[in-house]
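Help!! Second protein's tokens look totally different from the first
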Amino acid sequence: MLANMRFSLLYLLLPAALLFSAKGNTQLPVLQLPELDLEKLLLEDREKDFDIRCAVPSTTEVVFQNGRLGVNGKIIVEPGPQKEINWTYTIHGKNALGITLLLKNMFLPSGASLTVSNADSSEVMVYNEKDNNSKKILTIGMISGNTARIHYREPKNCPVSGSFEIFRAYQAYEKTHALPENRPLSFGFGTSLSCNINIHCPGTDSVKNIKRGISRVMMVLKEGIGYCTGNLLNNTNQDGKPLILTAFHCQDGYTPMYDFWKFDFNYESPDCINPVKEPKANRMSGCVRRAGWRNTDFLLLELSSIIPDSFNVFFNGWDRSFSIPSGRTYYVHHPSGDIKKYSADDKGATSVYNFPIQWNNNVTTPATYHFRIAPSRGTFEVGSSGCGMYNSRKRFVGNFNGGDLNGCAVANGFFGRMAFSWEGGGADSSSLKKWLDPKNLGVTTLDGIEKPAPKQFDIECRTPGTKLLPCSAVIRMATPEGLALSDSVYLGTGKLTYKVPPYFSDISIRPVLNTLPREGLSTSDIVLIQKHILKVTEMTESWKLLAADANNNGSISVADIVDIRKLILSVIPALPKSNSWRFLVKNSASTPQIKDGTATFKLNSPSGFVEFQGIKIGDVNRIY
């Protein structure tokens, strides 16, 4: 048997130099990426069997920090005093078909925006403070054409400046020999075969829930980038944990950069017609690997951020039994990394393939580990890898590994059987059992669910005098498996109801406020602190002790008085070692303490409440 084709889209990377050309002082210089040697690349593809390579990398050094934009260490934009920051910078690859960018050290303040577009602005991606994350990274999806324009805007008098570094760019190129029919291999919007069926065409109602749990997966690897298809699956806790199952070979043999993996939900046409303009997707970035196994080609991931309610996702059910699906089977996927498509086997001709399969990446999978089908509607392509086979009860039973492809004709499509993936290689890291049946119920089937209701926590911040106090709060969450997330929220009225998905086991909340450092401070406060140090009149209330600890070292001494006096006399603009406000958890301690408040909960109840007391540092006589 000829080697079967794996259907992921992978762009291998080659070292490349960075070229820089200046265009004078009236406009920003253009970053020129190395020109692609297409003849050399295609020759290497043939000689090294790089059948699915579509792009090569460039290392970049575009740094924005403290209002300055620099390239290769040379500053090309200087900040103006209290002025709006507003610039556009261009990255150009002479013969590139598309450009993808990776960012690190990224922070976008409130009101700022980072916009990336192609040359004619027919494709525009906008990022703002909602795209900040604890790892300070961002993946910019593929912009078509040879030009990527980066526009950054930051309002004047912004209290905190934004920052980011574009450290890697990928240039895509066209291949002319990658597929058996010798058609050019391209990727992304509008590139799949015309025989594919859009997800909202007539006859697709049977997958109206399934499709909501399908995402396009853009894998970012040190060696390249590729597209596959992911399935959002339910687990026996039915807690909405975002577990995505895709294909193992999408990253097999490479070095995944899981933090940069990108997941696009609802990337689809609103009707049966292929749209002229690319539809917007609900994007998410970052994941952790939970399990994977070559024999059935499954890879299980957990998203490292919370799926917003607005995505309207569905957690698909599954069937891990050894039965062969009877009747119609369904497939939802992103062929060629294009918008969401539908395939089906209306004939119900699923069978078990009773022979080993030799794949084109020198991997052999065992006999009977795969279902074999040929779709009667639609087809499969590069990028379909990982798509699920759903049986007549709309339950996931296997994942697409690859097959014999000839344009719109698929002689054989092979799907790794979930029945074997369940126990897999015997370890948690190579099986589905622990992750999809955390309660160890031993069930063989599980239906899909809507996103479950979150747990709610009411947070309030008040002064010791019970006046509501607007502030920010840092919220950290952790799962039993150790996945930790953080979020920053603003309590504009001093109150907030925060929603936490039920799959988290712990949550901690810490308020933050650093405004008006001198307000409420006077020599009277210094006198009271001196009396406490000399034990003339000792302070016993926790809030007074915290207010007197101006240098935030957990004790009260002359050093605190020195900092407060300098602040009152305007020698310093703010306390050097403390925010102007710190917080106590109300009624959290029966004995006096000098300790900032962090509320920690075990999430074993559907709701909770915490009230923080905001303490103005230095104001021990509570004038403020």
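Here's the second one for comparison:
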Amino acid sequence: MPDDKSVPSELLRLRAAYAAELPRRVGEVAAAAATVDAGHDGIHDGLKRLRHLAHKLAGSGETYGFHKVGSLARRLEDFAQHMMGLDEATLANPNFAVRRRVRALVGELEGLAEAAEASLKSGDKSFVVPASDHDHGRAVLLVEPDAERAGRTTRSLQTFGFDIVGVAHVRRIEEALARQSFDVVVVDSGAAGGETFEALQAFRASGVLTQALVVVSAERDFAARLAAVRAGCDAYLVDTGDVSALVAALDGLTRADDADPYRVLIADDDLSAASYVEVILQGAGMITSVVTDPAEILDSLESFTPELLLVDFYMPGCTGPEIATVIRQHEPFSALSIIYLSGESDAKKQFAALRAGGDDFLTKPMKPEALIAAVSAGARRFRRLRSLMSHDAMTGFATYSGLHRALEREMLRSQRTREPVAFARVDIDRLRRVNEERGRDVGDAVIRSLAQLLRRRLRRSDIIGRLGGQEFGVILPETRLDSTLPVFEQIRASFAGIGHGADGLRVTLSCGISGTAGLKDALAVADAASGALATAKSAGGNRVIVKR
């Protein structure tokens, strides 16, 4: 990975300027929170201001690499939003649990602002140098009565970069949440005997527990799952000792898969109507483009690359269903989500339109929330389908062909910019023996664990692909070859320390790394990394070899 010296000095200057501004920004948030805490008649206006300021702080903090600031501010924004839906009597209670949590979050933010100020005054710039993407963990409260199991789970989750705090009983949840902010609460269903779900349900109802909730249980039956749902459970895991399942659940609850805004093409010959729809969707954070001539739709699909098409049912010279049929016959857009917009209320015509290739039918006039919900659902389906078509089903990484194409693109970019690129091949040692002795389910869990470790320990800009079976490939843009070794040595050591299955089976990996310097194409780079990997394997495995 590039070290701190390779970060542009201008970016460091901007981060330093932001760090200097942080006390003022946090002070504004603290003042708004104090207004809310006072509990006077304008508390709802205070909550709106608190939510707004926290939202701005979260965005700016994450933008400039102050991930802890961003995470805390995001939690504060969520709490403000939650409190806005409560009645005056609840909000006026000075001992209301959420109010105490708001105070705690503000206190943590003030501590970070003070640390930034002190660091700058002392001339120490370490505070403003951004951490690597994988360095900022996610905070998890683990409720586990068995000390041995708690220790094992804590060590495993820490390997994947999570920050873990453990308590032994459900009744300790409120106390822990009052002291510190958490992103997820993980509860063993036996943490309060038969009263676990009742306690969790009470915490949800009182506002004590607003975080994502994962329940781990030995029970597989419907009744246990139903009780967990009624307690506000977001994920229910049957306890098999497979840490990869818990990591996957935590990642799913804390990672924003749809961070990039949806792209929507609006086709309507009535520019005024199209503009109205555009304003609503842009207000929901989407990127839009408008076309009024049906003949221009295919060109717009090529240039704008939308994830969803909103098309008027009656366009000049043709109908919406006819347009949908044309699009479906054009292979690059055959999977595009298409929603019709029309005042047409005839159910038979609507059904016929859907048979022609549409995914949904919205009748004008429509409520803005209905439009946003339908478009979001359609774009999300398209994004998911596209991901399934080009990514490995087990890991979500790029397929072999997708990774090869990405490596070709990065090599071309490297030739233009003269920035180095590195490529690594990572293979699990002796996985066949694991499959033969423990079963393929355990082997698959080992593969998923490595996939999750790679995802969490590498940068967002790194491109990971599954090359088949137990082997992965990683493209590292703008990365010198000599800086890859410590990164993959850390991954190797971490993977060797993970216990798989109920008995904590240990498995190792080998890795071969090459650079692009002096190599003419992607195949040559991949072959060089394969040679380094073969050297690591022949030396006994559990090692990283760099091909220089």
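Reply: Different proteins will give different token patterns, so don't panic. The chain has four domains: 4-130, 135-254, 263-390, 400-547.
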